[in-house]
Write a structure and sequence with these properties.
The strands form seven sheets. Strands 4-3-6-1-11-14 form a six-stranded antiparallel sheet, with no helix packed on it. Strands 5-2-9-10 form a four-stranded antiparallel sheet, with no helix packed on it. A two-stranded antiparallel ribbon has the order 7-8. The chain has two helices and 20 strands. The longest helix is centred in the last third of the chain and has 4 residues. The chain has 275 residues and is mainly beta.
Length: 275
């Protein structure tokens, strides 16, 4: 099984201070629930629910190379709005990294996130449905990274910066004019370190069979079906059955969720023969 690395990059080649908001279309409940979140960012993030901070990256943005993952719980009532601040490391407003060395270059940033409810069902994943607004982009000219003495604000190292829109992370904010987030594959990004500590269940894509654990499933003929790389995650029937072109064609969504006795009715599998 190969999953997609859905990195919410900004609307530019340099992601310094993008803001990303997601409005959730989930059923309303009358009491708060506990949700579990996993976030991996290059380099730093701050997550807000209905305008209130629920978590932020434990490694300061001043850390040049920071690729840690964060897992945490938060409580909220559905529906709720997520506001995500994502920052990439920069030495100054040129937007460059490793200034004055042979590695001097423009930075790039991205983030992947997934949120599950108490049953293990996936509630939110980062994808192209998210809307983003960049409040710091630099440099405006890629030629800046070839300057011997780059100076922020002096061509070719110009930059654009603005303040966070007032109330952008609240439920009443209209983000319809914001751009959609850009999605990149795991192969394109090459995530490292903390990324590999999380089992990302957001999505699945087809890939050439290579015999790896990531593409292996464990099934003894009676019971659960689990990825070889994540034996505690079970193939789970989700939602309601719907019909296709006729009543004989019945379909139901299948997701990966944490294996649980409470989910046995939706996670137990067997096989049958034509006989």
């Amino acid at each position: 099984m190969i999953h997609t690395f859905e990195a919410l990059k900004g609307c530019s080649t340099k992601l310094a201070f993008p803001l990303i908001a997601l409005f959730l279309a989930t059923p309303v409940t009358l009491q708060a629930e506990t949700f579990s979140a996993d976030v991996w960012a290059d380099n730093w993030f701050d997550l807000r629910v209905n305008g209130t901070q629920v978590a932020k990256d434990s490694v300061p943005i001043t850390t040049e190379r920071s690729f840690n993952a964060e897992s945490f719980d938060f409580t909220a009532e559905r529906p709720f709005v997520l506001g995500l601040v994502a920052k990439d490391f920069k030495e100054d407003d040129t937007g460059l990294e490793y200034i004055g060395t042979r590695r001097q270059q423009m930075g790039d940033g991205g983030v992947i996130m997934q949120i599950r409810d108490a049953s293990g069902a996936t509630v939110v994943v980062s994808n192209a449905d998210w809307q983003c607004y960049v409040i710091h982009i630099a440099p405006l000219d890629k030629a800046c990274e070839n300057e011997n003495d780059p100076v922020a604000g002096t061509a070719p190292c110009g930059f654009n910066a603005s303040e966070e829109p007032t109330g952008w992370d609240g439920a009443d904010f209209d983000a319809s004019s914001w751009a959609s987030a850009s999605v990149f594959s795991e192969a394109e990004v090459g995530p490292k370190f903390g990324y590999n500590e999380i089992f990302w269940v957001a999505s699945v894509e087809l890939a050439t069979c290579d015999g790896s654990t990531a593409q292996s499933w464990v099934f003894d003929g009676e019971g659960t079906i689990a990825p070889g790389s994540a034996p505690k995650m079970c193939l789970t029937l989700t939602g309601k059955t719907r019909t296709g072109r006729s009543d004989n064609n019945q379909m139901i969504a299948i997701t990966l969720q944490t294996c649980s006795e409470d989910q046995t009715a939706y996670q137990a599998w067997s096989y049958r023969t034509a006989d």
